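Recall the central idea of this unit: under ordinary conditions, the amino acid sequence of a chain determines the structure it adopts. In this exercise we apply that idea directly, starting from the sequence alone.
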Amino acid sequence: MSNRKKIIVALAGNPNCGKSTIFNALTGSNQHVGNYPGVTVEKKEGIKKYKDYEITFVDLPGTYSLSAYSEDEVVARDFVIKDKPDVVVHIVDASNMDRNLYLFTQLAELDTPVLLVLNMIDILESKGFKADEKELSSLLGVPVVSTIGNKKTGINNLLDKIIENHENGDFASQKKAKVDYGDDIKTETDNLEALILKDEELSKLPKNWLSIKLLDNDSAAVKKVLVSKNAAAILAQNEKSRKHIEEHFGETVETKIAEYRYGFTNSVVKTVIKELTSNKKDVTAVIDKFVLNRFLGLPIFALVMYLIFKFTFTVSYPVVGWFETFFEWSGRMAAAIIPEGNIQSLVVDGMIGGVGGVLGFFPLVLFMFFAIAFFEDTGYMARAAFVMDRIMSKFGLHGKSFLPMMISTNGCAVPGFMATRTLDSKRDRFITMFTVSFMICGAKLPVFSLFIAAFFAESQQANIMFIFYVLSVCIALIAAKILSKTVLKGEPAHFVMELPPYHMPTIRGLLLKMWERGWLYIKKAGTIIVFISILIWAGFTYPTASENPDLPQEEVAASQMEQSFLGRLGSALEPIVKPIGMDGSRAIALVAGLAAKEVVVSTLGTIYSLGEVDPEEAEPLKEKLASDEGWSPLKGIVFLIFCLIYIPCITAVIVFFKETGSNYKWLALLVIGNTIAAWLAAFLVFQIGTLLKIGV
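Accordingly, the structure predicted from this sequence is:
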């Protein structure tokens, strides 16, 4: 048993302040990721053994404030209040201190111990300024440490400061600077605090924080009061106080409180930031002249996206081949070891054939995550949202809608739907959620990769993938335009977004981010996809058809598939899918994709494995598709267009339902609307392509 003393540290800060970089630098590989109970917000924890201490770092979600406007903010706030870490290390982007210190004003009101980290201090100095660390510490009443996270500069100093203040008891006796809201607001908070103190449970909360939050009309604070026996008196006083303040100042209480907080941060920044004699060029401003240029911004964004796909396909191509060879070899080995029969068929055709088809594209998914993480960490993706806003607003979308769409592209539609909470307007949120469903998420990526690899030359694969991504955005924009002119009429809210300074990502940070997202992919393949693959195998294996020894093995296999449960279901679906160039087995793959989009690939893998006669001649799935006379490049494209538009997986549909207020009208529009749109688009492309004899 370890004799080390223990400290629990929460890391808080705005998005893009370098918090994750510092968390990685502090904890290295000693970290794990999970979810906060009851919510989808990611929870990261890591342990650092340093000197005589075992320090547990909890990476809180990046937030601009601790209000109840988003799940991230509530999770961060609840952790500080309920779990009571020994200290909250508040990481501040030194080059954007004014905006970042807004969070400090609320941490101070929570009466939690705080240590302030001025991160990216090199960027501040590159702009010709420096921060007076001692003056800042004196003004705020908390210890201050300067760091450069991506160079690991100041990390040990940070650890020393945590231990030193913990051992000396300085955290417990901190006298932090708090915002002075003036006599009028102070009088009202005093009135509320007097009532709060009469309730035993409420009095355990920081009373100054709770009174300010009630005046700020914070829904989570009101919810806490509602369970109090003194709720009626507190809420009546709150209503009276809010009315008094609004009449006195002639503006909303929320606006007035924000003004005082920003006044506080402005004053602090003016005092501690000094201009250096040298006047160096601001690199961020120079790059932004091109990246945010009205005419160059969009072509640069398109070039960045193209480079991501070019990098992904070019670098991953040989590695994907190694994976395919491995699964081919695994199938042959299993067939050689396991006696012929249903068990062999289950392992070789069902499990290896199904899951192998999905995991074969694992390297491609990893490289895609790496490339996107690179542009995220440099700060470019925030600029991309700014650039895209000009186009998106013309289609009734808000500029912030780009971020949920990117999150979906970079992983899954589920967090994409959740990320729409950053949009203030309900109309903007709902339109964005519909567009998110059209993005090529990480689960759809193996489907697209498989078909593109099967029907297009290697030199063209990145180009075709890029075209499909552009197509997905076009479909999303068209859907947004239709929705904004029909069931969700109105104009998008004004777009305001903070643009972080550029900085060079660390390889370690990129690899960690790539692995975290990739690990989710593997877990999915190892659980739900294995399960569905076995079901698909059973669906095509039973009931067993009577064998005729006089027939060739190919005909026996085809007869078995036709007479199986899923074969019959496929036959029933054929009249619906035939006009879009599909047969029953392809329809089954699409139906199976409702469980998870990767299952489309595993289902095709199982189908082709079952139809295969000699396991010694096993080929990669893409080669089986390419050599199947039932397919053609046109049918492959039609299949992908259907995949692009039709219903998201069942998990995403459930989250969509919850995020739209469990409203059946929106659920029906998503399920029925997307399916009809997918069929119509596939029908048009197939019929026109056939008429013009393109790819037939």
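The chain has a mean pLDDT of 85.
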